[in-house]
Each structure stands twice: as structure tokens, then as C-alpha cells.
């Protein structure tokens, strides 16, 4: 399944901001990379890279690394559409997101569950929150397999995940990622298509 927009189609309504959230280890990066592989060159959906104050490491996220002074300078200059702090780092998406939305492109990026109210404030009726769901046993195993944390850290993450998942607003769309990544990505594509195709003149 591919989402495409022919060159002669014209947008008849607002594009959407797809805000993907989920606990660490739930597979957000894998889902985003899988979506990126399926989108065509003339797709009406764009994936925004995050700006993060950490060096490019061996994680799966293709982000843009900034120093703290660089991040501060860009924030003060109004170059971010949204920014937040988590895990001792600064995160942001650039103003290109707002430019793309104004041009009629829908946008997806990796968000924070704690910042859903801010996303709601910034993107209003455009916002579509996608909550990635993973069973605790599977999440724990994935965290152990990646080998970044001690067992007590993993257990703490699981407790935080349970708390934040319970606090998700009712308007979230839940995406199961317990098993097949291919199935998860296809479900995401179908949801995006359902949310966006109604806005195009055929």
C-alpha cells in the first residue's frame, strides 16, 4: 500500500500532523523507517527529522545532532515548530513542519507522550496522535535485547510506560506493534490514507 499524490491533484483542506508516541523500546524508529521505505517520491506525506542535543549514536533514529548552544540559538531565533526536554536531552522539530503543512503536505514525527497537550495547543485540529502499543512482556524483552540498560532501569522504564500509557487521551489512535513490523507499518499506512485522502480533489 502506497500513499501517492499525482501532480495535478489539488488540496481541498488542511493537511494532518501525525504525532507518533510510545515507550522506549516500543519500536517507533523501526515503524518510522518502515513507513519511510514505503512512501513514494510523490507522496503527500513527509517525515520530519528531530533535532536532538546528543551525538549520532547506534540508535535507529536518523536525527540531526546539535550541541546545547546550537539548540539554544535556534530556539531563541524561533526556528523550531515544537521543542521539549526528556531523558536529559533537548528535542525539537523545525519550522519546516509548519511550512510543509501550509503547502498541503501531511507530516509525521516521533513525539513525546508527556508533550501531547503542547502538540494539541500548537497543531490544533490538524493533530492526530498515534499511540504505539506493546505488551509489557514484549517491551521488557526488547529493552533487554538492545542491551543499553541494567535490569532495574528496565523495570523502572516499564513502570513509567504503564503510567504514561494510562494517561493517554481518549482521542489517540492505538497502533499495535507486538508482532509483525510489516503488519504494523501497513496498518499505519492505511490509517494515514484514511485521514488524508478525503482532503484531495480527485
UniProtKB/TrEMBL annotation:
SUPFAM superfamilies: P-loop containing nucleoside triphosphate hydrolases (SSF52540). The keyword Hydrolase does not apply. It catalyses: alpha-D-ribose 1,5-bisphosphate + ATP = 5-phospho-alpha-D-ribose 1-diphosphate + ADP. The keyword Secreted does not apply. It is an enzyme of class 2 (transferase). Residues 14-196 form the Guanylate kinase/L-type calcium channel beta subunit domain. InterPro entries: GK/Ca_channel_bsu (IPR008145), P-loop_NTPase (IPR027417), PhnN (IPR012699). Pathway: Metabolic intermediate biosynthesis; 5-phospho-alpha-D-ribose 1-diphosphate biosynthesis; 5-phospho-alpha-D-ribose 1-diphosphate from D-ribose 5-phosphate (route II): step 3/3. Keywords: ATP-binding, Nucleotide-binding, Transferase. It holds the Pfam family Guanylate_kin. Its EC number is 2.7.4.23. Gene3D superfamilies: P-loop containing nucleotide triphosphate hydrolases. It comes from the Bacteria. This is ribose 1,5-bisphosphate phosphokinase. It comes from Agarivorans gilvus. The gene is phnN.
Amino acid at each position: 500500500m502506497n500513499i501517492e499524490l499525482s501532480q495535478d491533484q489539488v488540496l481541498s483542506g488542511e493537511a494532518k500532523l501525525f504525532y507518533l508516541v510510545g515507550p522506549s523500546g516500543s519500536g517507533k524508529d523501526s515503524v518510522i523507517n518502515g513507513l519511510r521505505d514505503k512512501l513514494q517520491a510523490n507522496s503527500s506525506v513527509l517525515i520530519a527529522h528531530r533535532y536532538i542535543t546528543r551525538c549520532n549514536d547506534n540508535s535507529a533514529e536518523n536525527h540531526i545532532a546539535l550541541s546545547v548552544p546550537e539548540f539554544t540559538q535556534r530556539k531563541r531565533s524561533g526556528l523550531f515548530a515544537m521543542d521539549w526536554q526528556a531523558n536529559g536531552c533537548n528535542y525539537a522539530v523545525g519550522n519546516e513542519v509548519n511550512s510543509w503543512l501550509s503547502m498541503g503536505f501531511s507530516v509525521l514525527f516521533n513525539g513525546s507522550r508527556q508533550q501531547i497537550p503542547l502538540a494539541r495547543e500548537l497543531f490544533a485540529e490538524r493533530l492526530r496522535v498515534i499511540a504505539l502499543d506493546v505488551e509489557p512482556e514484549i517491551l521488557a524483552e526488547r529493552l533487554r535485547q538492545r542491551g543499553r540498560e541494567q535490569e532495574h532501569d528496565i523495570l523502572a522504564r516499564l513502570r513509567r510506560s504503564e503510567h504514561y500509557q494510562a494517561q493517554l487521551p481518549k482521542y489517540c489512535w492505538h497502533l499495535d506493534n507486538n508482532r509483525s513490523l510489516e503488519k504494523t507499518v501497513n496498518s499505519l499506512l492505511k490509517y494515514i490514507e484514511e485521514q488524508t485522502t478525503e482532503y484531495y480533489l480527485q
